[in-house]
Amino acid sequence: MVPMTDLPPELRPFVLPVAEQAEVRTERVGEVDLYRPAGSARRGAILFVPGDPGPAGPGVPPHEWPVYQGYATAVAERGLVGAVAAHELVHGLDRLAAASDDVEGAVGVLRSDPQVDPNRIALWFFSGAGLLAGEWLDSRPEWLRCVLLSYPLLAAPPGVGELVSAAEVIGKPKDLPVLLTRVGREREELARPVAEFVSAGGTALDIIDVPKGQHGFDMLDHTDESRAAVTKALDWAIAHLGEDPTGTLPAAGTSTSTLPPTTSTTSTTSRPATTARPATAPARPATTSRTTAATTTAATTTAATASAAAASVPTTSVPAAASPAGFSFSDAAVPPATLAFDGATLTTPAVPVELPVPATDTPATRVVGRERAAYAAHDLEAFLALYSPTAQLQFADGSLLKGRRSLREYYRPRFEAGRCKTELLQRLTVGDWVVDQVVLHDTDQSPAPAITLYRVADGLIAEVRILA
């Protein structure tokens, strides 16, 4: 066995023992590693956002480091879903905007998972990923129960465009529990912004101090102080997700109750753990264009209506090698139109045509169904989270939107105005595409017939074409 001190820092084990035989299932969904407890009931979840080392990149990507695997496993052992996100900061701080989109995509994957309660999510940022926390502290969507920061980088170095400064938004009046784990042996360039953050936070901030800890103490300092600090932070997060932190403990010999007293202390506030927060539509937008299949009146119905929307839509499944030219949609209210798509033709007749419509339920149609439900619920956050960070949306006039940020800018006014209504008439699948015949009720020319084509990859919408 290689001595721990001979291992590269990033490959050293997590400071808390994790039972090897624990009933924890792991699964990769897109760029997110999910750690699941036993059972199928919906439960709260914590997304861990690793700090990344910079331009050179590690031999092992950060989301596969033992420390983050340990955190996520510890959460699953306690009965919640743990998740670790991969993001672009591994390639350097100049990838900050792309990394921000990656985290939004990971949130979308996590919230749409059938084992996760989409209204009980915690985000936990480490080291350099602290630069990504400001946007969430600013937007504060209702489903976000708490934010945790461990030895964070909170100020971008000179020459790096910052997103949203955490220090500027930590004192916002809307309640959002925030926990900072602060180490006593921090580097000066990191410690100074953290001090400013603490000064600005006031009573909005809880703190765990680790006086003898260094940056990365949770994998470098295998001490009682480190174990107690990590255990306390885990318990804090789980309590704010409405769970009992002691309800499911690690295997024998790893119980947190055996840890001796430590100088690490929680300070600044004594605010009780948050209980149920209303699941209203958040102010922050979230992932690109989705036409709606159902009418919902509150964001709380998004998760419930998604499955129903996907299941209730008639679907015609066409083999990938077949041409869609022979298939037609039917609805007497929609005038005929001939639309080209990848060399084939889709025709909408002016008179009803009776077609056999087998009920096909596929992963792609479920994703599109959730997108439509989020659109109908005017939940921009949930809507955008179902799109890939690099998604493309092409309109009938040839104009193109690229990336989730462009989609947000385009759709935000429509969501804020409550203009999110699209009637789904028919659906078929062609290879990797989901093809919907719709009537748009959200444009100046409404009602307007259109064909919307979605390409779904790795559980997210990668491309949309709107033909009219």
From TrEMBL:
**What is an example of a Pfam family matching this protein?**
SnoaL_2
Looking up InterPro entries in the UniProt record yields: AB_hydrolase_fold, NTF2-like_dom_sf, SnoaL-like
Positions with biased composition (Low complexity): 250-299
Q: Which residues cross the membrane?
A: none
Q: Which residues form the SnoaL-like domain?
A: 373-464
Query: Where does the source fall among the domains of life?
Result: Bacteria
Region (Disordered) spans which residues?
244-299
Q: What is this protein called?
A: SnoaL-like domain-containing protein
